[in-house]
Amino acid sequence: MTHRSGPISRRALLAGIAAAPVLGACGGVSTTGSGGGAGSITLMSNQFSPVEEKQRFERILQERVTGEKVAFNQVETGIFASTLQTQADAGKVRISVAGALHGDLAPHASRLTDLDDVLASLSDRGFAEELTGLAKLGGSTTKYIPWMQASYVLAVHKKALQWLPPGADVQRLTYDQLLTWTTAARQANGGKPVFGIPAGVKGLYHRFFQGFLLPSFTGGQITTFRGPDAVTAWEYMKQLWAQTARASTTYDNLQEPLQRGEVLIGFDHVARLVGAPAGRPDDWLMVPAPSGPKGLGYMLVLAGLAIPAGAPEPAKAKNVIRALTTPEAQIDVLRQNAFFPVTNAAVPGDLPGAVALAEAAVKAQREAPGAILSLPPVGLGARDGEVGQIFKNCFKEICLDGRPVRQVLDAQARELDRILGELRIPCWRPDPAGNPCRVA
Length: 440
Hints:
- There is one protein chain.
- The chain is α/β, with parallel strands linked by helices.
- Helices cover about 40% and strands about 10% of the residues.
- The chain has 15 helices and 12 strands.
- A 6-stranded mixed sheet has the order 1-3-2-4-11-5, sandwiched between helices. A 4-stranded mixed sheet has the order 7-8-6-9, covered by helices on one side.
- It is globular and about 65 Å long.
């Protein structure tokens, strides 16, 4: 999945899993999956930026969107936002379909066509009510059609199971059990930790705090940022860090340290995990994140397909959306680019081993009793990095520098509240949809 991923992404994860068809030159800003040229419509997306992912998706467009010619225009997130805004506000829209993450579409809700009619025509797809609710972007009408999803999970080498605490179920861990497990594993491994997180410069470790640890301990992400439950969460994190490989601060992803055997238990985005077990999937498990006092907090990374208001060829655009939500197209994206279905598409039994492991873990996490859905920050735009840095600062100051938790949270809360005060945006899940969103 693209999701701000580094250079490893899925170009490594599917090497040897699925052959990547070569579809011709990838230069320029507009390539086609179905021939392009006269009569084609443009699908602009900030997903599938690695060239192999892009080429594979173009092949899916060619094979599955048989009724229309589609030019796939893959762009960076900043260009996606500015292009959509500029064209819509000028009334000169040339994009027919816009495909992006929920948080990237949310700021443009007023620039998107209502798609209630399309959603109604897709009743056989079996979209979860939770997803179609998010697709309204806070309003009363459907602004995008769910397209694909991903999340973060734990990858576990079966060698580590020998140290699992008695009575613990690796598929239903609690945070206390994870701490006990990693402590026992380090002690049995000659004092060398076997747990890892992607805490390098390009690592997505802040998503662990935002979408997993804090929701599981506090029930929220922003409104509960400096509350007493957040103090408990960060005190826990200090203990977990003591059992974590110190080289984690150099890991931009866990794929390579897992492959090398430096890490036997690791948390990361599925796209940055599945390369590790690709060669020997029988040696690995992928399991849901642990549960905390409030439940199992997990981050849903959801992408959708929207039609800008005033888009050319809206009828053809709707046909493209219908084609990309068929079971065949959904499974193709899963096989080729490790993005999971948002429909009731039956997952085949012959998936590549690593992808099958990830799919099962994501599904179990989503369906777990007491699951708390969290979203990546919504509506931050270019300031997403600033907010992410606040969570990284908490980790550095509390876990690496040993500063008092309460002192750190109070200082970082002031900075977080300053940014939110300037943006004046609603909160996002799991926090209540208050407007504007502020730290309590």
